[in-house]
Amino acid sequence: MTGFRKACTLAAAALLSLTLLAGTALAEKVNLTFYFPVSVGGPITKIVEGMTEQFMKEHPDIQVTPVYAGIYRETLTKALTALRGGEPPHVAVLLSTDMYTLIDEDAVVAYDDILKPEEMGFTKAYFPGFMRNSQTGGKTWGIPFQRSTIVMYWNKEAFKAAGLDPEKGPANWNELVEMGKKLTVRDASGKVTQWGVAIPSTGYAYWMFQALAIQNGVELMNAEGTKTYFDAPKAVEALQFLVDLAYKHEVSPKGTIDWATTPRDFFERKSAIMWTTTGNLTNVRTNAPFPFGVGMLPASARPGSPTGGGNFYIFKKATPAERKAAVTFVQWMTSADRAAQWGIDTGYVAVRPDARETPAMKDYVAKFPVAAVARDQLAHAVPELSTHDNQRVTKALDDAIQAAVTGSKKPADALKDAQKEAERILRRYGK
């Protein structure tokens, strides 16, 4: 009987121990809310949600709730609104250019403040071009994820019909104009049925204009995000060129060109050349009803494109356990294999050099060589326009660009006004 009681006691103790362990495990499970944006066509939401589900299978102690929050600007607004309400996300993909704004809002925590110095070596795995607007003040604030450059797409059938080499896009601004003239098609009444060139001037107008400015030999801001050079002579020339495509050369629609509909217009043969993010590559590959080419943007004084897209940020309000779990999630989402697959599935640039050495990426590029264009263009890229109070500064520039392309202001006057507004906004940061 004593032996029986002893056995029961041991069994009960073991059961209690297991119960306590289970309870501890449940108590230690970390729950993260993850905000992410979508600014291109294609099934991005499903891809992100699928990646998150796979992460949770491999990390059962971390629960991640992905929340699609709109385009980038909407996602930033929702994240900051949630912050002010006391319930910010734990981790979010926001524009790399939002870095200064998030720091000024005291919204995010640097990775250096979560990890030990010896654990920060992983940040060296990413392309330096993407890290240039992920770090400031000696700290890393964002980890590249949904990153891009602008690339040029063209309809090979339209090129062939115009007597152009379908395998060769324009290499410089002069060729863009000359090819654009041959590619612009009018019906018997003189109405344009196909434009030669479409460069969006809504949504991310500042980004497209920045590409032209870079190509013309000028950068629009300083490295500290405290000064802009919107009205520099070379910048004015760049905006004048954009306006001239429509009003002088008549190879592009007059007025604004919508970011969201530019790919659809390309698919519907309303334009023969378009500029847009490489993040649209898979969308174009899936939906273009004709063979297409992809190339670097045409040069003027130099080739070039701004980098673009989003970084992973970790919000400051998170607990130490949540911050650690968020880092684990970010590192998993941006590992070489995941970065490669993300690039294959979306067209965004795989954010680390070792991703190109994965079997999946090697096979993909071998079969679809244009997938390497955006990556190779990184050699000529500069950081996307990023300043303190970036939303207001870029809005001033967006407004100037739209005023110029609609003809309500001359490019020089529009950029002069934008520069004055930017200086007013940034005055308190330049001291």
UniProtKB/TrEMBL annotation:
Subcellular location: Periplasm
Pfam families reported in the protein's UniProt record: SBP_bac_8
Position of the signal peptide: 1-27
Keywords, in A-Z order: Signal
SUPFAM superfamilies per record: Periplasmic binding protein-like II (SSF53850)
InterPro entries associated with the record: Bact_solute-bd_prot1, SBP
Family assignment from sequence similarity: Belongs to the bacterial solute-binding protein 1 family.
Full protein name: ABC transporter substrate-binding protein
Naturally occurring in which organism (per UniProt): Nitratidesulfovibrio liaohensis
